[in-house]
Amino acid sequence: MRLPFIPREEKFFDMFVEDAANVLTAARTLEQFFANYGERERLAAELRQIEHHGDEMSHSIGHKLESTFVTPIDREDISLLISRLDDIVDLIEEVADTCILYGIEAPTAVAVQQAGIVTRQCEQLYEAIVRLRHFKELSPYWIEVHRLENEGDQIVRRAIADLFKNGQDPVEVIKWKDLYALLEEAIDTCEDAANVVERIVVKHA
Asked: What is the value of pTM for the model shown?
């Protein structure tokens, strides 16, 4: 007896796009946070709302995964992708909260550069995820995310070296070392998300 054909649930791709759009909104809001630092409390609150919305989307995708018999891509890849996207937003929110918690008076040029890299990576991730359902011609997006991660590495290495070279207040050194590390982790996590996209495409090419 032949089993009836069960179509794959394609709705997942629309949910990934919505999730990636939320991540991009978070990255752009962090740039605004640094550019309009006098409004940091309001923008940090916005980031908390964006993070909460991201959690809701992650839970929705997780519930759909539990109730779907045939998924368009491997279940572990779905879980990994939404987890990495969620991690990016968590780190972005943590950067803003840490600035307020540490009493940072003004952002440095390095922090602004790092936030810009996160945004450019999230733009590439968003464009890749919009096209993910076709599994084609996505390599330029993850290649650019990797290139940006290398750029971020170079920036933060120089910045941390400068912190210890210029004889600043040790407390300020610790604060900025922590913040640069958080921003670097966000950049690295964007690369992790790009790696998941690449893995999915390689499996389905």
From this structure: 0.93
